[in-house]
Design a protein that fits this description.
2 domains
Length: 179
């Protein structure tokens, strides 16, 4: 999700809290998949932790890309409607021209891929995948909340939470949008 540990932990905690419901125990990865900064991923360790904690499914999200687009919005000149009956009315009206200066506008789009895997098989089978786009997030927390709400909504819509998740065998892909 992010190369920053605190952002990953916040995302995992928020997603876990939103997925939790009666009959579903949710474990944030940051509580069982301990990995010090700068160390390589150890797949044997991950498999052992998944089995030891009786994990039936895994949700994995990753940051795909961040697009930043900067555009220049040109300024505009506004002329008030002139009053023509007298010279002073005309001159006093057109003299104070209103000007709006140009400015730079930054647009940011964050694309995140989220996959849901069933761990009942030896390799962990893909059950669902989705891509989400978040436009101009005002904060990391708002971006996380938007993606979490979207992912959980789609998993519920596809009936992939609870008993239905154990029976799911097909992969689904839906484009998701978060604003």
């Amino acid at each position: 999700m992010s190369d920053r540990v605190e952002v990953r932990a916040n995302f995992e905690d928020a997603l876990s809290a939103k997925l939790a419901r009666p009959g579903i125990e949710v474990i944030p990865g940051n509580t069982i998949l301990l990995r010090p900064e700068g160390t390589a991923v150890n797949l044997d360790y991950i498999k052992t932790q998944i089995r030891a904690n009786n994990v039936d499914g895994v949700v994995v999200s990753r940051l795909v890309k961040i697009d930043k687009n900067i555009t220049y919005v040109p300024g505009e000149v506004f002329y008030p409607y002139p009053y023509y009956r007298t010279f002073y009315g005309y001159y006093g009206t057109v003299y104070p021209v209103v000007y709006s200066p140009g400015y730079l506008k930054e647009e940011k789009k964050i694309r995140i891929e989220t996959n849901f895997y069933s761990t009942s098989g030896p390799e962990g089978e893909l059950v669902w995948t989705g891509m989400s786009d978040t436009f101009n997030p005002s904060s990391t927390k708002k971006a996380i909340d938007g993606v979490v709400n979207l992912v959980v909504k789609e998993l519920e819509k596809q009936q992939l939470l609870g008993a239905a998740a154990a029976q799911a065998g097909l992969a689904y892909q839906y484009p998701l949008n978060s604003r």
